[in-house]
Task: inverse folding
């Protein structure tokens, strides 16, 4: 009988451990998912008002405002609707107007999306057109950078 | 002409791989010695043709043969020679070729270094690896031929992705692939053992050194990748829980579990079925990683070429290899009878716990990686699982691992005395608690429970591991004598576990005490961070071989004394016209200072600048290097060579006896 | 007792099913709000002759493809030969928009590689492109006779895509009045 008790102990300890791990995983999943919404969905109030989410779309051409300070404002659009975005910090290399972007953050009270992270993704088959900016840069190296 | 030779060599390699896969396996099954004997020559011919094919592609890069599509897409006449060579594995087709070459290399190594293993077993191992090769070569020839020609060759190539133009990244993929593919050896041994119906301790002994070597490569590959991301992506982070990173990390975790489980199976004959399952899983996760990276089912910063046809092929391949192995497993594992007994307090239990924790960790990483895919498949919309998920799961799971790692090694096989062990460990516990509270209180800028835990765990791992060395000195031996008599395998364990201590300390202190600041700085402006003064002197334009750069100048001083001058760059590569941030880093054992350029702000030469002070960040990679060293020592243990020599002698005698 | 050794296989099969479904979905495929909407109108200067203009309105009553490309876009090079095949052998009407490009480079590109387009609008400053919600290049839209967008593809057009999806759809749209 002793062997059987020991075996039971092993199994019980294993189950408790697995249960703990499962709880940990589910809890973490629950708290750390962020859903993806398009500007249209945001305008239609489908995005959560009090939770972090990801806003994806296109940085509208000519909408990028870069002041003297670090805060940057731009508009994310999906062709049908537009959302104003504010972000304080340094933008990733591949960020550019007219190009796809994903911003993670939450809606502010004035309808401006406050991003705490901005991702511009690189994909070798479907290259976003950072070209024009880069071209400008390459041409204007000596004088002043334009963006 | 040369590319055609390469193409032909690939086809011949496929033929050889087929021969290598079919004849030995059937021969071993039916007992046809001449078919079994084909394993080695076929594998070596396969390797030869792969080397020829690989050489041809490299040659095409070196002579700028832009009539080869792959070369035209991934290189340029201005590209430095180092990147012409590393460009070969820089994109989809070439990296597959490299994968297949690596597999052929490992197979070749098995044929050269397995003289102690019975011929039938080697034939089966080589056969299984041959079948895996067939899959990869077919994939390459059918969907991604690196030797495809262009009808109108361009005069100039499109250049290698600038992100890949870096020495760290040039050697990162080969290391990673050597690791990934290296697990195929353990996998093949497990499958061969199942095919032969002999799931005993022998296969575990044979595959142990191979697993360790593969694990060392994988560890080095991951360390290099993390280091590269740190200085090249310009974010100062060292791990992002990106799907592609996870794809390399999951096989690593399972591979670590496998190394430990193999030890139990070899020494004690326990966990036989479990070890086989781990060997299958380690390689399956390597294949899954390839699938995730190559098929584009998950978006990632690394996103490689995505093509549904390729995805379907790899998925089918994955299904056949893994599904087939698991089916074989469900049949064979049911026949294993394990009669090994051990007590609750024993080294077996310690290693069992190690395995359970590692596998649960791997599963949670897998779940987080695949979760967005599952939700999307179920119609739940597009979601992403962020780094906080992984951190909040990974850290609680690894704490018990760190608590057990040194203790497990101190336990005796079969059964041990818990009370006596507690007495031996008590002083170490006290020292660790004191260090855990004391060191952060004295040295750190602020108190943090995380730092206490980190320092405590690191000290605990350090002292319990050293205790193992000390206990070898008992029993009438002096310390020096004991150290000298410790086998390489023992030292491997010590260094591997010390690596964990170093790693834990690095992770804890970096994540808690790092400070960063995004700033607007005008030339001549000063900012103070972590006790250092950063003086921004402005930005000017410089010219590189295939890029132009805005090059900043930041002078760092501490209490008026000059520390370093950093030159962060913002590069624009001429051909791909892609902007790239090249951070300026002053590296040190106890802290890194890190400056990255953002964008110019306004007309007066002001720039957005990101500054980091990262204490102990090097320790993270140092820990990885320690672990690799440990793995290397373990793999080179004399025992394996002695066994080999003994086996060779008996084989020779047997042969002599047969001829006499 | 034996069944427990089948558990790993079962779990693996579930994973494979999810991976297979995942394969059918393109993570880059950001849901477009423009499908089955009226196509935005554009008037752009002609790439080949700056004096002339390319108008979307001129295509009314035809089923046509709008292809957004640029010489800076590697995938557009790869796609180009197939576009030529579509225009020549399948008689597909393709209007190009040369986006964010330099006129000289674009002209040289078409001279060297051939021109599959009925007309090419030149859009260096993303004037027209914005309305179409284009994220990058290449991107292709299918517009029906009434001027509605019926289909969109991000990335290169391949022969497989043509065979399996686009060809049948175009034939159906041609049959509509």
Result:
């Amino acid at each position: 009988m002793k062997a059987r008790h020991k075996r039971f102990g092993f199994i019980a300890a294993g189950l408790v451990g697995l249960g703990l791990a499962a709880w940990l995983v589910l809890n973490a999943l629950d708290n750390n998912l962020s859903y993806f919404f398009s500007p249209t969905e945001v305008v239609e109030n489908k995005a959560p008002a009090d939770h972090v989410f990801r806003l994806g779309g296109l940085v509208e051409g000519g909408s990028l405002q870069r002041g003297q300070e670090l805060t940057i404002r731009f508009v994310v659009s999906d062709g049908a609707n537009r959302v104003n975005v504010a972000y304080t910090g340094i933008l990733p290399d591949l960020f550019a107007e007219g190009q796809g972007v994903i911003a993670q953050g939450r809606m502010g009270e004035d309808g401006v999306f406050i991003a705490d992270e901005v991702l511009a993704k690189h994909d070798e088959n479907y290259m976003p057109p950072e070209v024009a900016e880069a071209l400008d840069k390459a041409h204007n190296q000596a004088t002043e950078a334009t963006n | 002409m040369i590319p055609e030779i390469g193409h032909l060599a690939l086809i011949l390699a496929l033929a050889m791989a087929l021969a290598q896969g079919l004849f030995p396996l059937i021969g071993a099954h039916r007992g046809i010695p001449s078919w079994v004997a084909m394993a080695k020559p076929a594998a070596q011919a396969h390797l030869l043709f792969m080397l020829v094919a690989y050489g041809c592609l490299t040659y095409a890069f070196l002579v700028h043969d832009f009539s080869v599509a792959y070369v035209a897409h991934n290189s340029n006449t201005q590209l430095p020679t180092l990147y012409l060579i590393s460009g070969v594995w820089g994109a989809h087709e070439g990296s597959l070729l490299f994968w297949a070459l690596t597999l052929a290399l490992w197979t070749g190594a098995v044929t050269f270094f397995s003289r102690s293993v019975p011929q039938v077993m080697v034939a089966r191992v080589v056969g299984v690896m041959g079948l895996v090769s067939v899959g990869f070569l077919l994939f390459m020839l059918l969907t991604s031929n690196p030797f495809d020609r262009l009808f109108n060759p361009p005069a100039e190539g499109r250049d290698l992705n600038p992100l890949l133009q870096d020495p760290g990244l040039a050697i990162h993929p080969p290391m990673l692939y050597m690791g990934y593919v290296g697990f195929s050896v353990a996998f093949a041994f497990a499958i061969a053992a199942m095919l032969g119906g002999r799931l005993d301790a022998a296969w575990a002994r044979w595959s142990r050194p191979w697993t360790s070597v593969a694990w060392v490569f994988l560890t080095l590959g991951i360390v290099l990748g993390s280091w590269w991301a740190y200085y090249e992506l310009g974010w100062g982070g060292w791990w992002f829980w990106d799907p592609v990173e996870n794809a390399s990390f999951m096989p690593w975790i399972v591979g670590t579990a496998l190394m430990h489980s193999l030890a139990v199976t070899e020494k004690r004959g326990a966990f036989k079925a479990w070890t086989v399952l781990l060997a299958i899983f380690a390689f399956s996760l390597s294949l899954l990683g390839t699938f995730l990276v190559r098929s584009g089912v998950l978006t990632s910063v690394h996103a490689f070429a995505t093509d549904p046809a390729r995805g379907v092929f790899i998925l089918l391949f994955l299904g056949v290899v893994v599904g087939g192995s698991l089916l074989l497993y469900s049949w064979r594992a049911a026949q294993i009878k394990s009669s090994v007994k051990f007590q609750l307090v024993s080294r077996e239990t310690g290693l069992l716990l190690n395995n359970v924790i590692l596998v649960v960790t791997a599963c949670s990483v897998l779940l987080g990686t695949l979760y967005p895919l599952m939700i999307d498949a179920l119609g739940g919309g597009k979601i992403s699982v962020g780094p906080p998920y992984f951190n909040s799961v990974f850290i609680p799971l690894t704490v018990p691992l760190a608590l057990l790692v040194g203790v497990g090694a101190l336990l005796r096989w079969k059964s041990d005395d818990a009370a006596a062990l507690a007495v031996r460990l008590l002083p170490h516990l006290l020292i660790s608690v004191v260090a855990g509270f004391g060191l952060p209180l004295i040295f750190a800028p602020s108190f943090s429970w995380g730092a206490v835990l980190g320092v405590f765990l690191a000290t605990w791992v350090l002292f319990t591991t050293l205790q193992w060395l000390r206990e070898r000195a008992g029993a009438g031996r002096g310390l020096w004598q004991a150290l000298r008599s410790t086998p390489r395998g023992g030292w491997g364990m010590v260094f591997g576990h010390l690596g964990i201590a170093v790693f834990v300390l690095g992770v804890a202190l970096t994540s808690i005490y790092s400070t960063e600041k995004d700033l607007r700085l005008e030339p001549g402006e000063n900012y103070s961070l972590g006790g250092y003064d950063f003086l921004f002197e402005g930005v000017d334009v410089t010219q590189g071989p295939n890029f132009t750069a805005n090059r900043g100048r930041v002078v760092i001083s501490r209490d008026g004394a000059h520390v370093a001058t950093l030159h962060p760059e913002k590069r624009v590569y001429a051909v791909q016209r892609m902007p790239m941030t090249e951070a300026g880093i002053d590296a040190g054992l106890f802290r890194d200072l890190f400056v990255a350029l953002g964008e110019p702000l306004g007309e007066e030469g002001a720039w957005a600048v990101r500054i980091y002070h990262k204490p102990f960040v090097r320790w993270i990679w140092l820990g990885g290097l320690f672990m690799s060293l440990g793995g290397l020592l373990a793999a080179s243990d004399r025992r394996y060579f002695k066994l080999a020599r003994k086996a060779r002698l008996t084989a020779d005698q047997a042969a002599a006896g047969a001829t006499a | 007792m034996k069944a427990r050794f089948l558990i790993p296989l079962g779990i693996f099969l579930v994973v494979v099913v999810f991976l297979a479904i995942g394969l059918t979905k393109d993570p880059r495929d950001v849901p477009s709000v423009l499908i089955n909407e009226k196509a935005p109108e554009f008037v752009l200067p002609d790439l080949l002759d700056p004096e002339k203009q390319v108008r979307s309105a001129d295509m009314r009553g035809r089923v046509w493809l709008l292809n957004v490309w640029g010489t800076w876009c590697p995938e557009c090079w790869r796609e180009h030969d197939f576009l030529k095949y579509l225009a020549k052998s399948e008689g597909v009407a393709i209007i190009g928009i040369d986006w964010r490009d330099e006129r000289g480079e674009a002209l040289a590109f078409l001279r060297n590689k051939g021109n599959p387009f009925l007309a090419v609008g030149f859009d260096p400053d993303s004037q027209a492109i914005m309305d179409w919600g284009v994220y990058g290049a290449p991107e292709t839209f299918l517009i029906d006779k009434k001027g509605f967008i019926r289909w969109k593809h991000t990335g290169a057009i391949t022969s497989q895509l043509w065979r399996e999806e686009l060809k049948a759809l175009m034939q159906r749209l041609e049959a509509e009045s």
User: Anything to note?
Assistant: Residues 36-140 of chain A form a domain with the OB fold (Dihydrolipoamide Acetyltransferase, E2P) fold (CATH 2.40.50.140).
